[in-house]
């Protein structure tokens, strides 16, 4: 029984990954299921949302630059020996 069991196990070990690869690469299933679900979870951005995001990024970038420019003026002077 040892050889038959090993042949069965080897067949199972080789068949399972190949079957899963074949199933996962079905274009119709992928488009119908995964892409549709992605569109439900994350709808396409609207132009006004995109503009708000860009304005927010610019505002944050400006605040960081101002903060970095103020840091050296606050730094204490190093004592000279």
From TrEMBL:
The keyword Transmembrane applies. One of its GO terms (molecular function) is unfolded protein binding. It is a single-pass membrane protein. One of its GO terms (biological process) is mitochondrial respiratory chain complex IV assembly. Its main location: membrane. InterPro entries: Pet100 (IPR018625). The keyword Mitochondrion applies. It is found in: Membrane; Mitochondrion membrane. Pfam families: Pet100 (PF09803). GO terms for cellular component: mitochondrial inner membrane. Keywords: Membrane, Mitochondrion, Transit peptide, Transmembrane, Transmembrane helix. Belongs to the PET100 family. This is PET100 cytochrome c oxidase chaperone. The lineage of its organism: Eukaryota, Metazoa, Chordata, Craniata, Vertebrata. The gene is PET100.
């Amino acid at each position: 029984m040892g050889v038959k069991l090993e042949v069965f196990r080897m067949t199972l070990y080789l068949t399972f990954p190949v079957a899963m690869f074949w199933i996962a690469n079905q274009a119709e299933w992928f488009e119908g299921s995964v892409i549709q679900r992605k569109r439900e979870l994350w709808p396409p951005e609207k132009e006004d949302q995109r503009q708000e995001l860009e304005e927010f990024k610019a505002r944050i970038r400006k605040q960081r630059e101002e903060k970095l420019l103020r840091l050296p003026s606050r730094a204490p002077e190093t004592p000279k020996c």
